[in-house]
From TrEMBL:
Keywords, ordered alphabetically: Kinase, Transferase
Name of the protein: Cytidylate kinase
Amino acid sequence: MAFTIAIDGPAAAGKGTVSRAVAAHFGFAHLDTGLLYRAVGARMLAGIEPVEAARTLRAEDLEDDALRTPEVAQAASKVAAIGAVRAALVDFQRAFARRAGGAVLDGRDIGTVICPEAEAKLFVTASAEVRAERRHRELTDKGVQTDFATVLADVRERDARDMSRADAPLRAAEDAVEIDTSHMDIDTAVATAIAAVETAVKEKTE
Ligand code: CDP
Ligand code: CDP
């Protein structure tokens, strides 16, 4: 049976962490759609025209650790504002979403544009300060030299660009359950997400 869980939200809200745990709990496959835009952004930084980069993206392009840098994140949010880049990535995401056995996709427009029919929709968010603190800790742990103010400015700039673009802007779907993780640890955020999905499953099967 195909069952799609759509998880959207702003940068560093905990979407990936929650999505991986929810997918493991239900035995579903997981796709981090941010990686698609990061891979296109990285290819643009390497000199490839972004629409061409999106059309010729291969699975191997998603497996590069270099995709996790703030520079690539900024490039990703720039190419993500190009309608033809987004259009080139739609079919792959929709096919993944409808695979037998269930799927969790996390991103910015999963519940609104990619899978408006998703059986469960979550919008995972947190204050910009908390998100920047988490991302800053993550980068510091990896040995990347950066300060909190730079990370906060990066997060804010990306959110503003993602929310203001004409095509598939970042916003919660009307029927999404919002989870604000500002004051939640990871276990609480995951348990809240699983409970919300279980409610959606019950509603579907009633
Ligand atoms: O995928 P997204 O960018 O939304 O966020 P993430 O990579 O899942 O989470 C960003 C960082 O916040 C990671 O280091 C998580 O471990 C951490 N996190 C947290 O401290 N508390 C939460 N409730 C959720 C995530
Ligand atoms: O991990 P983090 O939340 O910082 O970023 P990400 O999820 O890897 O996404 C990187 C960028 O890709 C975002 O800032 C968006 O501009 C773009 N993106 C998007 O437009 N649509 C998606 N479904 C996923 C990501």
